[in-house]
Automatic annotation (TrEMBL):
Domain Adenosine deaminase, first and last residues per copy: 5-320
Required co-factors: Zn(2+)
Lineage, highest ranks first: Bacteria, Bacillati, Cyanobacteriota, Cyanophyceae, Coleofasciculales
Keywords, comma-separated and alphabetical: Hydrolase, Metal-binding, Zinc
Family from the record: Belongs to the metallo-dependent hydrolases superfamily. Adenosine and AMP deaminases family.
SUPFAM superfamilies: Metallo-dependent hydrolases (SSF51556)
Protein name, entry field: adenosine deaminase
Amino acid sequence: MTLYAELHRHLGGSVVPRILWRYFQRQNPEQAGRFPEYPGFEEFYTRPRNTLDEYLELHTLVESVQTEETLPYFIYRLIRGAHIFENLAYLELRYTPYLRTSERLSQSERIDQMTQIVEIVGKASQVAEYPMVTSQILCMHSRLPYEVNKAIVDLAAQSQEYVCGVDLAGGDAHYAERLDEFIGLYQYARSLGLKTTGHLYETPDGCYPELLPYLMRIGHGIQIPLKHPELLSQLQQQGQCLEVCPTTYLKTGTLQDIRQLKVVFDRCFEAGVDIAIGTDNAGLHNVRLQFEYENLLTQDVINFKQLQACQDAAFRHAFAWPHTQDPTSLLTGLLKTEPKKTLAGKSQ
């Protein structure tokens, strides 16, 4: 059995449609009234959007119900599905903890409550019956004030039992007017020894070379091989990895056809730049990681050798994978048996 690593999955977009709909039916009369039948909800929840900003608005639907009381409910079902249906051995969940705190509190009180949110997510992710290595990436957000984003970085540094890195999310078109601020926050994160990734070069509006030196991995980054291939040698020298999430670009209107990603993979492989394939928002897309693999293969975007290289890269660039080998190699060693010996000492 092959086991996989998922490096780019958002907590807000990870809830599969039927589980979210059932939750609304039982606990949220307002949303239940909007979607009395499941097919209508699934169509609304998973249909493509015209822009990344429009797509990201869907996160608010889930964030509003992912509270300290309900997070264990959603995370248990997420872990169960990832283990049983996706064969995940490693999962990084990313989210903005501030957006799971109570809106009834003041900003300073919400900042304090973030610690509790991280602990709840960390403990809920450790499900004995579905063993896998899990960790959190805390997302700064382009629409949150500096004080909150700095507190998120501080919390990541103080919570390394549960947290493996920091990210910047919220739509890459919104970074420009605060670019110096985000550079400073990444410098601060690196000074604290934190590992870093960031949503960058996802869309043509999100190309900020000034941020690249501070990232160990690049969330999406597809516009680099598509529009700025001159940067690939820099990425290779710095050992950076792209987190490519194929279905996302169709859902956000960034690409019109998944076969447009062939240029991304071809140029990255030619330049020696690693790619890890992710789902991004498995629930919003109603897909699992293996579907992303299969779709890339059947559309001739990559071949099996390249797929294996991407799967290996995911473990190699995982921020919290505790082993030097991928799980398949570890299992092979555990399950390998020596040839039986005969009484004469010869192998049978």
